Amino acid sequence: MNVSFQWANAALITMLIGLPTAAPAQEIDSDTGLIKAPGWQATKANCTVCHSARLVTQNSGSRAHWKSLIRWMQDTQGLWQFQPEMEATILDYLASNYGPKEDARRPPLPRVNMPDNPYPTISSSD
Ligand code: HEC
Questions:
Q1: Is 52 inside any structural domain?
Q2: Closest among 17, 22, 53 to 35, alpha carbons compared
Q3: Looking at ligand 1, which residue's alpha carbon is closest to its atom 40?
Q4: Who lines ligand 1 at CB under 6 A?
Q5: 126 found inside a domain
Q6: Contacts of 44 (CB under 8 A, 6+ apart)
Q7: What's the confidence (pLDDT) of residue 15?
Q8: What residue's CA is closest to ligand 1, atom 37?
Q9: Which of 18, 50, 74, 109 could form a disulfide linkage to 113, CB 3.0–4.6 angstroms apart?
Q10: Which of 35, 54, 69, 89 to mutate to test the pocket of ligand 1 (most atoms within 8 A of CB)?
Q11: Ligand 1, from 65, 77, 101: best to mutate by most atoms within 8 Å of Cβ?
Q12: Residue 74 confidence (pLDDT) above 90
């Protein structure tokens, strides 16, 4: 099979499965499903010890969100402290590869469009 034919085939297959042809292929670690990008090994080494990497890959959020998750695990789940550079490496990795999703959720309905709350609440303005 000649090279241009292979390219045409690859382009056709890419079109058929609906992926944008310009997107660079994202390499995924077959062990964990983590995206292979700078910092992934540090993340794999530290973040798959207690639970599956799925917990990581199915979450998303800003750097601050990831930082607060790490603090929560350190405060309550026995996660160890990191050297500052190690923490920065992991946080950079998480924030750039599992950053906030746009349009992942619709905005909340305004109160006026919600059904009446059948339960008494402390604030009557609710
Ligand atoms: C010392 C053990 C331990 C290590 C190491 C650890 N975690 Fe966790 N993590 C936990 C426990 C325990 C939970 C709660 C699991 C559950 O709810 O089933 C959790 C939950 C989570 C969750 C889900 C939080 C939620 O809102 O439900 C995420 C995301 C997460 N960890 C990410 C990470 C990342 C990123 C790292 C690496 C920096 C990491 N974990 C390392 C113990 C750990």
A1: yes
A2: 53
A3: 47
A4: 46-47, 49-51, 55-56, 59, 69-70, 73, 77-79, 90, 94
A5: no
A6: 29, 31, 32, 34, 53
A7: 58
A8: 47
A9: 109
A10: 69
A11: 77
A12: yes
For ligand 1, atom 16: residue with the closest CA: 51
Model pLDDT, residue 102: 78
Number of domains in the chain: 1
pLDDT exceeds 70 at position 50: yes
CA-proximal residue: ligand 1, atom 11 (nearest): 77
What's the pLDDT score for residue 29? 96
For residue 45, how far is its CA from the centre of ligand 1 (angstroms)? 13
State both tokens at 20.
């944008």
Please report the pLDDT score of residue 94 as a whole number.
98
The predicted pLDDT at position 118 comes to 85
Tell me which residue range forms the domain holding 59: 26-104
Q: Which of 88, 79, 77 has the alpha carbon at shortest distance from 39?
A: 88
Q: Is residue 99 part of a domain?
A: yes
CATH number of the domain bearing residue 35:
1.10.760.10
DSSP H helices in 17-102 = 40-47, 54-57, 63-76, 84-97
| For residue 97, pLDDT beyond 70 | yes
